[in-house]
Amino acid sequence: MRFGYASAALLLDGCGFAESRTSITVSAAASLTGAFTEIADEFAAAHPDVDVALNFGSSGQLAAQIGDGAPADVAAFADTAAMDTLAKAGLVDESDVFATNELTIVTKPGNPSGVTGLADLKGVVSLCVETAPCGKFAAQVLAAAGVTIPEGSVTRGADVKATLAAVAEGDAVAAIVYVTDARAAAGRVDEVEIPAASNTVAEYPIAVVRSSANAEAAAAFRDAVVSADGRKVLKLAGFGAP
Questions:
Q1: pLDDT value of position 58
Q2: Any residues with CB less than 8 A from the CB of 198 and at least 6 apart, and which?
Q3: Cα–Cα 20 to 30 A to 97, which of 88, 110, 195, 239?
Q4: Total-model pTM
């Protein structure tokens, strides 16, 4: 798959990408790891003089890093609230919502505890930290279903990858993670769907960081993500349309 959008061609012809190497750092939500790695590989093939460094983590943590002046050229989060915080501080350009996601339950292979829904979440349950979008959304989903999990039974992951790993590699009975992460971990965990009435939709925004020293290359990467080809990659990873 090649990203042949017009803006990239203009950048290559008029902005000197071919004259010297350019580097950009993309700070992105952990749930984007698989999709953005593929998009970045295709982007690098189309722009051989641009180096793309991917920095994955919790959206809240990444937003705080950018707010503290950490180097970043593109921000892509799992929550519009984190992006709004940066926008209000004047740290990012206008953002575009490029994908959506939902939550699901994962268990150990074979679902040995017989989890059929949110009400069955007993024992050690893995949730994202409350400052991460996946933690905030999990709290909303549990509240909508009228389910309370004692905090003493909860183990918290720094991001959705760590939260899922507590089930796949640790002692947690189950976890609430994004659908895309459950799909990526197929074989390592089983999935139990959360009914739409109790679920929530996470919107994923992307923006160029205003302090970027390579704003044109950053904008080209943003364009790759929101392009038709970029959205095909996201769809295959399980993300919904914006």
A1: 95
A2: 118, 141, 144, 145
A3: 195
A4: 0.89
Q: Is 27 left (phi over 0), alpha (psi -120 to 50) or beta?
A: beta
What is the structure's pLDDT at 156?
A: 98
Token reading at 120: 């069955």
Question: DSSP labels for 94-151?
Answer: --EEEEEEEEEEEESTT-TT---SGGG--SSEEEE-TTSHHHHHHHHHHHHTT----G
Cβ–Cβ < 8 Å for 65, 72:
yes
Which residue has tokens 């959304």?
137
Q: Which helix (H) or strand (E) holds 53?
A: strand 50-57
Residue of 115, 84, 110, 86 lying closest to 97 (CA atoms): 84
Q: Residue 23: name the closest of 156, 215, 194 by CA.
A: 215
